[in-house]
Amino acid sequence: MYEDLKKSIKLCFSFLKEFGFPDFEERQLAHEWHFETDNKLVKIDISFEAIFSTPVWAKINGYDIDELEPQNAIVKQYNHRIIKTHDELLGLFLKTGKDGYQQKNTEYPINDQEVNNSYLLELSEIIKRHPSVLHGDMELIKSNIEIRKKEQEQRAAAIRIEKQIYTLEYCFHCDGLDGKYDSYEEFAALYELKQYLAERDHIKAYRILDWNMNLVS
Description:
The protein is α+β, with helices and mostly antiparallel strands. The chain has helices at residues 2-12, 73-96, 101-107, 112-129, 139-163, 190-198; strands spanning 25-29, 32-38, 43-49, 56-60, 63-64, 166-170, 183-187, 206-209. It is elongated, with a radius of gyration of 23 Å. Residues 103-110 have low confidence and may be disordered.
């Protein structure tokens, strides 16, 4: 797996030299391998763990490269496969106690090698379609992240309203004097929320909100 991904990274991203990037440097952090390069304006970091069910991570100045094209079909397919593989291995372990990773080690050259290679190739093509990022322009990524964040908030709000969920906002590492809270919990019933508070004397600063985010007295 290591040698295959190393070869694929260098091949797919060889075009970066045209933009002033030197060869990738390898760095190992615990069970992670990082391949890093920068042109003084932009740093690209491609990493993976020595576990076959985890994905390849590819970042540019700390942002996920795939945020450039969040609706990209190949990226979506890759992420779906990673989640599916993880869930299958976890399900196998919880059900039988068996470790499925050894089987994944055997299957990797047959299945996941091509999946990872295709993903890395698509990431390189994404960058080629948005070359301004190689000069430090991260505005498209920031905009896409903000859009995704708002969509997630809207979906969460719709579910909260549909199920009439109460929200408890409280201070865990703050004092609440500025009216801000750093933690929250959600409850299906108000009595459950009040019981939660009664069992936690350390929570002093808090507020209770209904499903429309109106303050509950």
